[in-house]
Amino acid sequence: MATNSDSRDLFLTRGKNLALSLVLLIGCYSAVLIPAYFPTDQVATLGNDFQHPKDLVLLNRSATLLSGPCQPHWCLNHLKSLSCSAGLVDLPVFVQQDRPVTWDLSPPLGLQGSEEPLARALASLPEQNLPPSLRRDGSCRRCMVVGNGGVLHGSHLGSHIDQYDIIIRLNNAPVTGFERDAGSRTTIRLVYPEGAPLSAEEYKNTSMVALVVFKSLDLDWLTSVITKTASGKALIT
């Protein structure tokens, strides 16, 4: 049977209990706040160095491509070698108001049946011509298509990507905050309504935003975005 003195030995005094609680509380706060405000050298090293050897190999490969001469008609020649290339070369890349086209298929393969929404969308555009960076001037230009799958993370390819003449991104492929790996500028951002970036930051330093039409309602969406009017039941601002 334990005596009163034995039971008191099992518990801390009030003063010691308070001191221990303060130590534990300070320790918990330190564990949370110190890494946030004072990053360790290991974190800094991961941010500045390559995380994987393949990233360095990719960077060297990219540098080799950039140091070589631009190859005129490289893409066109490879397109012509495809078995399904008949007629593809003659298709217009962009739909323009001053270049009417007869469509034999409905969206997404064509615009048959969407002529009226198309006319409204084209009429609402603030500019009808292509930006200077996309106009044909006979010079050889390098093109880069940047995906949004995250494979560029840690690649340090941003400065290489920015050296290309035409940089194409799809939907909400991020740029802001990822300039070191993904580059800082965009020539063409291809979007459809469901995948368009919501942040205005992603549209900065962009030459042109192009709509990829999958359905007729996409054209109404474009008109509503430009004119800031209601499209169906939704108001696009």
Descriptive account of the structure:
It holds the Pfam family Glyco_transf_29. It is found in: Golgi apparatus membrane. It is a single-pass type II membrane protein. The chain has 237 residues and is of the alpha/beta class. The chain has 2 domains: 35 residues; 176 residues, no CATH class. Helix content is 38%, strand content 11%. It contains 9 helices and 6 strands, in the order H-H-H-H-H-H-E-H-E-H-E-E-H-E-E. The longest helix is centred in the N-terminal third of the chain and has 24 residues. The termini are far apart.
Short description:
The chain is of the alpha/beta class and 237 residues long. The chain contains nine helices and six strands.
Key features?
membrane, Glycosyltransferase_29, 237 residues, glycosyltransferase, alpha/beta, single chain, extended, GT29-like_sf, disordered C terminus, two-stranded antiparallel sheet
